[in-house]
Amino acid sequence: NTKDELQTLGDNLNTTATNLQHALAQRKELTDTLSHELKTPLGVIRAYAEGLKDAVPDKQIVYSQVIVEETEKMVGMINALLDLSSLEVGATTMKMEKFDFVELVETVAGREYVDTTSEPFHLSYSLPDEPVYVVADQNRLRQVLHNFMGNAKKFVSKNGNIHIEVSILESLMQFSIYNDGPHLTDDVWIKFHRDKSEINRNGSGLGLAISAQILSMHKSEYGIHNKENGAEFYFMLPITQ
User: Fold this and answer.
1) What pLDDT, on the 0 to 100 scale, is given for residue 225?
2) How far apart are CA 91 and CA 217, in angstroms?
3) Taking a C-beta distance cutoff of 8 angstroms, is the pair 38, 81 a contact?
4) pLDDT for the residue numbered 198
5) The pLDDT value given to residue 239
6) 44 has which bridge partners?
7) What's the number of CA atoms in the CB half-sphere (13 Å) around residue 22?
8) Lowest CB count within 10 Å: 79, 174, 193, 239, which one?
9) What is the SS3 assignment for 180?
10) First-to-last CA distance in the chain?
11) SS3 letters for 33-68?
């Protein structure tokens, strides 16, 4: 407590040490988790690669396809992780522009739900008749919408409902998507979080973590509301003229 440059230097060194310890702990946790996540696809690839040695031609085609699919799964997971890391450390900047959010929702919903091959469900929507303009990174918000809509399609109960809505709350625009299905907790925003059911085994567990980071960088309020028969994701953005 010398109240001079020496104390300032000491305080700065203590802060640096604390930040370094935190960073090392995060790195260890990430390394441990990623190692665990990659064990399964690597094990599958090894098993099917060994099976190729003695497999008949028809089986060789099937085994080769499994190896390709598991490899693509690992590549997707690593790319998603790199994207999330880039967002978290600020290496990626938002490219802000003015655009019609309603048009973006319609475009993404068309790609997610037209000619879908998942279990049957009922899709409904409530969108403003007029454009709703926001200033944001359009490509990143497209990524968020794909994650939210894909998540709803993955978890909707058979013959259940998916409802998409864009509403106006004074100077804010609120996007929400509801699906009949299991209730959720805030753990869904954590890296590599997965539901224990079979239905979510193909996911990387990173989509919602990336979405949360993108929305945080937009200073957007976002979250989950559990309803009687399902769950609703939502986020808000300021409306611009």
Assistant:
1) 94
2) 12
3) no
4) 42
5) 96
6) none
7) 6
8) 79
9) strand
10) 54
11) HHHHHHHHHHHHHHHHHHHHCCCCHHHHHHHHHHHH
Which of 136, 65, 68 has the alpha carbon at shortest distance from 98?
A: 136
Distances (CA, A) of 172 to 100, 146, 165: 14, 21, 14
The span from the CA of 77 to the CA of 71, in Å, is 10
Can you give the pLDDT at residue 28? 73
Residue 42 to residue 74: CA distance in whole angstroms: 9
pLDDT of residue 118: 63
| pLDDT of 176 | 97
**Amino acid in position 39:** K
Among the listed residues 23, 111, 70, the one whose alpha carbon sits nearest the alpha carbon of residue 204: 70
At a CB cut-off of 8 Å and minimum separation 6, what does 44 contact? 66, 67, 70
Of 211, 126, 207, the closest CA to residue 162 belongs to 126
Distances (CA, A) of 119 to 73, 156, 161, 177, 240: 22, 8, 11, 18, 38
Residue by residue, DSSP assigns 146-171 as: HHHHHHHHHHPPTTEEEEEEEEEETT
State the Cα–Cα distance between residues 210 and 84, nearest whole angstrom: 6
Q: What is the pLDDT of residue 120?
A: 86
**Which of 114-145 are b and which e, b meaning 16 or more Cβ less than 10 Å from the residue's Cβ?**
eeeeeeebebeeebeeeebebebbbebbebbb
Residue 176 bridge partners (DSSP): 165, 234
User: Which parts of the chain have pLDDT scores under 50?
Assistant: 198-201
Q: What is the pLDDT of residue 76?
A: 78
